[in-house]
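=== RUN LOG ===
request id: a7f3
mode: sequence -> structure
chains: 1
length: 502
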Amino acid sequence: MADKTNGQPGPKPSSHGAPEALADTGLFSHYQNSHFFCELTNSGGHTDPQVELIRDRLNALPLDDLRSRAKQAEQELYNLGITFTVYSERDAIDRILPFDLVPRILARKEWQHIEAGVKQRVQALNMFLWDIYHDQNVLRDGIIPRDLVVGNANFCPAMIGLDVPGGTYVHINGTDLVRDDAGRFLVLEDNARTPSGVSYVIENRHTTLRVMPDIAAGIDLMPVDEYGMRLQNALAELAPEGVDNPQVVLLSPGIYNSAYFEHVFLAREMGVPLVEGRDLVTENDRVYMRTTAGLRPVHSIYRRLNDDFLDPEAFDPTSMLGVPGLVQAYRKGNITIANAIGTGVADDKAVYAYMPRIIRYYLSEEPILSNVETHICAEPEGLAYTLANLKNLVVKPVGESGGYGLIIGPHATQDELAEFRTKLEADPANYISQPVINLSVSPTLCENGLEPRHVDLRPFAVTGKSTWVLPGGLSRVALRRGSLVVNSSQGGGSKDTWVLAQ
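=== RESULT ===
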């Protein structure tokens, strides 16, 4: 199945196609981009005076100066302990996420388009989740195949009939966007379980402003610092009824989790305790936190561990990370869990393919942000198309993340394609395929100076009784020349994302 509806068109490039150098002299004098939409030169850069000012200031920097500032930024990130864990590298467990100092810039109109599209998508996701755990009208009306939902590994029968506060299942959502060679923003996937990366958004901004204050001087940027406050407020307003001063906590698997830095960072930003499963206990279907002064009631949990580990009585009995009795307290309405249990079915890559239909079904609107054309290999038509065009497609397992388990046809060898074809034919339901998108590029500091590198964007939405979207989001950059894989676990880095306020 492929849905090719484009929805509302995104911004168009002001120039495209020919190789270009931005200046005869200066930092950009050798910057050549021959094939791709460039975030700096085509994104409002010819009409917005603030973008032109930023570009001129960057161009005036000597290359050695930019390299020196980049080293300073890297040292600051190291000193702050801003790390992620790569388990496959046993001799280098904690790594600094590579950071590129040249910011990615979004004009105000571009951001308004993204913001509206993300809000629409989050609203549809929450309505979809409410429906599949209650009336299941979307299944009866044939909008999406029943087996794709109820047979999904992330569908949670324990959630059937449970009324979550405010109808909010997805309190924190990360929508991965890419930009094609026409300048349109497209949704690559939804992250509705435990999306990570927002800490880098905030720390990237702090680092950029510290080491490049002259570049940002006088530029009116939308701020990113209120994320923690917004998230804490959302979880407090959706706490169980009758609680005057709700206690919110952040539940972490512990120090060995790959995103543990982020857990510490967000707990501090929210002003809430960081706890592990052993710090919580249930009594009489209520949740309490162990403190030196005794047990203290807990009303909302921002959990950063997967469903299977949340409660050994309800899910995996061997889990040492969760809280026995948590699900029973949840079903009794005595605790709010963000994101709700069972949300993983909504960000499954196969379900993603039906999101344009889901948006039309619940909202009677056209999608503001289009999907990337997607073929579901569980369906005969989708499998046949994928097998016939394997060398031209990106094929992904529906349950994986982080860039694992996929193949990029044009970059694969004949042996790799043959091996993958065997996997695909053996388990077609595990895969979807998409065309290779010519991702937009952004100027990035490389060994020989500034060079174009592919980027994506993950805006973060916080939903309580309404939805707020953090201005900008996480711009991830594929640091290897020609690579389309931006994930940190696959060698990618990040950039600060500047949204112009005017």
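=== NOTES ===
Residues 236 and 245 are 8 Å apart (CA to CA).
Residues 375-435 form a domain with the Dna Ligase; domain 1 fold (CATH 3.30.1490.270).
=== END ===
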